[in-house]
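Quick one - inputs below.
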Amino acid sequence: MDPTDERVPVRRSLAARAHDLKGVVGLLDITKPRGSVLLDQLAVRLQERIPGIEVRRYAKPTFAKPAPEALRQTIKAEADAVIEALAD
Amino acid sequence: MTAHMPSFSLCDSRGHRHSFPSGRPGIVAFVKEDCPVCDLVMPLLDRLGSLTDIAVFIIGQEETGNRLLVERHTLKTPLLDDSALKVSFAWGIETVPALFFTDDKGYEKSRLIGFSREEWQRFFDELGCDGVEWNSLPPWRPGCGSKSCDPVIADRLRAEAEHSPLRARRIDCAPADDEFEFMFDQGFTDGLPVVPPTPERVLRMLVGTVRDSQEIVASVPPNFAPATVEKIAINAVMAGCRPAYLPVVIAALEAVCTDSFNAHGLMATTMGASPLVVVNGPIRERIGMNMKLGALGQGNRANACIGRALRLILRNIGGAKPGGTERSTLGNPMKFTMCFAEWEERSNWMPLHVERGFACSDSVVTVFPVTSGPQLIIDQKSRRADQLAASMALVMQGIFHPRLQVMDCVLVVCPEHVDTLNACGYSKEDLRRRIQEVTEVPRWKRMPDELTGEGIGSLPPAHSNEAERMRLIPKFVADEMIHIVVAGAEAGKFSGLFHGWVGGTIGSVPVSRKIEEVV
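Output:
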């Protein structure tokens, strides 16, 4: 007998990739150690190389749990692109 | 109103199909070849077959046996093949010979079970069927057990019946396939062989709970898939459980699938965490759990299989597979199984489940998020409780990294260490306090420096004053995060330590659930 959940996984398409960065670029810190160090550097470099973009920082409350729905919706509403630092 | 007997359609030895009800009054008789009483009544049944206004169905329960009966008795009435035993099961036959007399629509009018000369003779007389030498027959014979009641076969029949409690998908394994290799190929195992979960075995496992087989017990992370009692039973079979273990597996799964335990994070973390299962209460003895010599190791079926069933459920139902949602850097052997019982009677301390608010008479399972262990704590020389507790504290200082402050841990105190602590009047609270006291160091000693870059981090500017630098920080965020249980052999001054994971609301907290026993 089948020991699994017998569900056929839904194949989801990835969101369209951004070809260039413009508008608001979100940087998501999952709060693992030193993730913020990487994102600090990334923010500086992005603003040097692509003048005119706005970098906005976001953080998960804990790396041990999925990002809360409200945070995901906020990022979706505010940012044109998002870069996540997994730090592992 | 008498019962309407189940309809059927069976073939005789020449392949002719016979259907019940037939539109005429019917006689349906069940026989098997190795029953001497069936042998005795075969000529009588064949004689009934000559009645023109009644449809007679003689049903044999074995393919080979049917051939023998036809040859032995030179039957004129066709003998129908029910070697699949589906009709015998549907009719609830317990004893053969069993003869049913029905009306033209299939409603039962009377029945004869076994052989009573008086009853059979009366039945024949009523039908006007004569020519039987009744005096040559014995007055009474009890008959034999129906083959459909054979314990091995009955479980299969129950599983295949219309009202079977089983709803899971059946996966056919080709006769030439090795069923153990097949289970590996399907990705159903943890890397060790599993018991193939046949419908018969799953049905027997379900006897261990009073819950409905289709009740959803939990949504299992990381995929949050529904776990029915049946799916849990399937995985319990695979893990090697006895039915009596099933209530523990169900309670452990309920505990693991709570928001507070956060199994999603526990499975996904690169730290390689897994649930540790501790069982308390009367069920420990009832199902033969080990809490004494070698309790944290191998060799006890209940300990090994309960922990393994939980892990297989997380894998097969929840989808926690290494390389998928399970992302451990190293993994750890507790991801196969980690379960034991507390030896509550061996100390004068309050058992774990009573500390956590349950009655002593309750059977309770507690799950802890752990990343490593059991780490051995050796102290063969201390004779005072404060010394021994300090030894434990010194070992605990190393959890994850000596400079880090941590949350939960599970300390398994061995009997000889219990004696030293109990003799000095040490309570669990005293032990916790002493561990915190010994591990306390000024904050600056837990900060990164030239020797090591790891530590609890730099002081925020607002707090970078001398008082904060000198503030004493113990190993554990709170005393109550040191969870203490008793287990192990009488001999040996060796306690054990399981390291926790990320604790509190940002990670995972231990959860207890009462076990619903079938007594």
